[in-house]
């Protein structure tokens, strides 16, 4: 039974259609694996009753011949997605006890396609973090370990629980969200595939907001084909989300030919940052050679405003967060602080937020409030918005010059130990996003693909950046890279 959990979405889908296995059997195998994996801290709200009910319904649909691609496939859902009747806390103590009476559009579409929800997954609080240490549940743990070292490693963040669960074969795939790299960085840290689609491709309705102009949902899967299958089920126009694009959703899986002959791949010189580890640099060069051997033309490009991306991001994202998180005050839902005799509503607001928000969330709210304040709005926020426009234009110029996709590292390092980077200087953690935030600022699609192991035996990933709305073409390039890299390594089970 345990071998069932190692299946990918595509092979499980085919096995279900052939009758080799049932969704109930597949779901029970995953539930058993989850029960034995508490050491990973990946699943924070388990939903076995819902899963088995959905699996039985999926089996009936498959038997009746009414089975979309995701039908009967067990997945995990990041705790940022509101799921009807199931705790949806965004890993924050301030939302303790909150069970929505509605379903997010993305999970509605997945469940409508017959997907099975095994439970909710750990994450950084309100998606703020790069290590899954900022969470009311305790950190999620990477199933990978360094060779000869027993230290627990981060799975990355904020979608760390999703990455850990998929890499450890607790579920066949998982939902993630990406505001500055929160799908791609954890995917790279755990040796899986993660795609952040174009902003507006997936509805944000029912996903707890961090930074509304940057957040985007996407799948985290075991390979590129699975990412194509799941992304198609997650996409589509949603009238409830004013930023949702009314565009047809292509058959992403059908576009996976692996043929990239004649494609032009850009290598941005600005991404060769000072102090880049030799292993990351070599991985990047090897990836470019793999794509060249597959028939692509490799050209050096310039994205001149890259160096301003990280500071611009850490102005815009906290500014939007300070506005979005103002709704958590203890009045209507979630945690409410106990008041002493004579204390009023302002005391309740202050106490509730002090008790409910973690330190990183408090830090970003304070930064955001500061940059939006009357004396600093133009100096910080408006200037960051102008920089964002320039970053977007850099990409537009590259694509206009004939570049089809851009190849870059996904992360500046392999996974680090839990607690290793939790220093008094949060900027060190923020630098984890150095290669990923540009896409969110420009609204572009990006996919992380595992392509090798470092000297410590940990996975390393490369990132491909595509033209807006051309996820199919981007996934095909990623498929060619995946085929050439031949990454099949799995973590040795210790949990």
UniProtKB/TrEMBL annotation:
Which cellular component terms (GO) are annotated to the entry? glutamyl-tRNA(Gln) amidotransferase complex
Q: Name one GO molecular function term.
A: ATP binding
Provide the alphabetized UniProt keywords: ATP-binding, Ligase, Nucleotide-binding, Protein biosynthesis, Transferase
Enzyme superclass (EC): ligase
**Catalytic activity, EC:** 6.3.5.7
Can you state which reaction this protein catalyses?
A: L-glutamyl-tRNA(Gln) + L-glutamine + ATP + H2O = L-glutaminyl-tRNA(Gln) + L-glutamate + ADP + phosphate + H(+)
- Where in this chain does the record put each Amidase domain? 25-475
Per the Swiss-Prot or TrEMBL record, the active site comprises: 78 (charge relay system), 158 (charge relay system), 182 (acyl-ester intermediate)
* GO BP field: translation
Q: Which Pfam families match?
A: Amidase
What function does this protein fulfil?
Allows the formation of correctly charged Gln-tRNA(Gln) through the transamidation of misacylated Glu-tRNA(Gln) in organisms which lack glutaminyl-tRNA synthetase. The reaction takes place in the presence of glutamine and ATP through an activated gamma-phospho-Glu-tRNA(Gln).
Q: How is the quaternary structure described?
A: Heterotrimer of A, B and C subunits.
Q: Which family does it belong to?
A: Belongs to the amidase family. GatA subfamily.
Q: Which HAMAP family match?
A: GatA
In Swiss-Prot or TrEMBL terms, this protein is called Glutamyl-tRNA(Gln) amidotransferase subunit A
**What is the organism field in this record?**
Alloyangia pacifica
What gene name is given for the protein in this entry?
gatA
